[in-house]
Amino acid sequence: MSTTFPTRPDAPEADAHTDFLDAVDFEPPTRIPSPEGVEIGPRRTLRTATLDERFNVVGALAGGLALATLLFGWIGPLSGIVGWFVVAFLAFVGLYVLLVSLRSDWQEVKDRVATVLMVSAGVLLFGALVFIVVYTIARGSEALPFLNFFTETMELTGPLDPLSSGGILHAIVGTLIQISIALAITVPLGITTAVFLNEIGGRFARFVRTIADAMTALPSIVAGLFVYAAIIQLVTHQRSGFAAAMAITVMMLPIVIRASDVVLRLVPGNLREASYALGTSRWRTVWHVVLPTARSGLVTAVILGTARGIGETSPVLLTSGITAVMNVNPFSGPMISLPLQVFDFVRSPEPTMIARGFGTAAVLILLVLGLFIIARMIGGKGPGQLSDRQRRAAKVDSIRDLQRITMLDDRIARGEYPPRVLPTVQTEPATASTASAPPAASAPPAAPSAPPTAPPTADPS
Prior knowledge:
The protein has helices spanning 18-23, 51-75, 81-101, 106-139, 148-151, 169-200, 203-216, 220-236, 241-265, 269-277, 282-293, 295-310, 314-319, 338-346, 351-379, 388-413, 432-436. The chain is an all-alpha fold. It has 2 domains: 51-139, no CATH class; 150-385, MetI-like (MetI-like fold, Orthogonal Bundle). The longest helix is centred in the N-terminal third of the chain and has 34 residues, at 106-139. It is extended. This is Phosphate transport system permease protein PstA.
């Protein structure tokens, strides 16, 4: 036996049903508690630190620096800038734990210490990156201001020539050609393999995943030796840009496969199920649902593979060869790249050649940064993140749908929707007697009627 609760009618009919609702003691099944009399505490700011937290950090930092300075300069026989930083950091962590424990429990102390360690690791990595970039650009600042450094080759320049002569144009072109060939092979093959590992699976997929994991830790010199033995010794019989691109591909492919595999695993399974429920095939689901959802992560995977391949030196040293002239044919003759050009420059004891080496390294860093920016612009937005043009188009579509729905509501209010359907005449099925009877002879068509004649008129004579 089920009990139905009456619902409250609309406002115009409320007066007519008041007595009935009072008689049945109406009580809605859901109650909204009143906020009156409830004490509201202070709002916590998650993105800003309190005064106590700032005091703990600043105090522990000042204490750590002072203690390290005393140990290295006054009390202990310690020396070295690296040791000073290590002692200062350890003292900072210890003093910070002591200050936090004065007003917090052990759980909050562990949380604060973990936060400090994570932030310190991020600052250390970012500081190392900034140091590498700044140091490289500073050492290469002697060669970078010269325009010929970007527009000429080293064909007519020797080690003793000034920086106003020669350049690295041949190395820039060689790097772009080699990385383009490597990306043309790695991107479709790596993403297709990752799709196979996630969407198909099976025993062979586990074998492929194991091989990709093993190739991730493959030494670069081994990849260079493999390409040297398989392509140069057996096929081309000469070092070339194509052989160097194959060696770079061997280094990039496992990284792209594993990174893309991890990204595709993060795509929610209910998106695939919803696509299959609509009747689409597996190929259309992967192409229109899975890949667009994981686009940002796939771009990151390609960036990681490019960063690994564009800076390789040892496999390129064995496969591409060293040259000082321009070569745009990757299948004939040696083709040098920027990392190999840096190696060739810094081997010389001449200051001008070393300056050219650091300038080439700075150009390589800027080139990689430019490629990363282009990749982020192409596919760096995550699922649901629309550009300005896409947001304007979505707004126009929403306005159009609102107008269509409003017009439909007006038609319903006027009684014009749904449209009236004329009754259809249903014919009865023929019986056996009717079907066996011969068809009646049709009447002959009527003769066409003569055209009307004018009435006779009297003779005027």
